[in-house]
Design brief:
Length: about 50
């Protein structure tokens, strides 16, 4: 199973169905997660 980390823009583009904005590797990562063949982690900014 593959594990990926995303940034805000790719996440929004995938979510808003603007997949033409994504690189091929990013689209593969999101597709793998969507089909249950991988995970995409979304980092969060913590308060320090």
């Amino acid at each position: 199973m593959s594990v990926f980390v995303t940034d805000t823009h790719p996440l929004l583009w995938f979510t808003l169905n603007k997949r033409g904005e994504l690189s091929k590797p990013a689209l593969r990562a999101f597709t793998a997660a969507e089909t249950g063949q991988g995970y995409v982690y979304i980092p969060a900014v913590g308060r320090g």
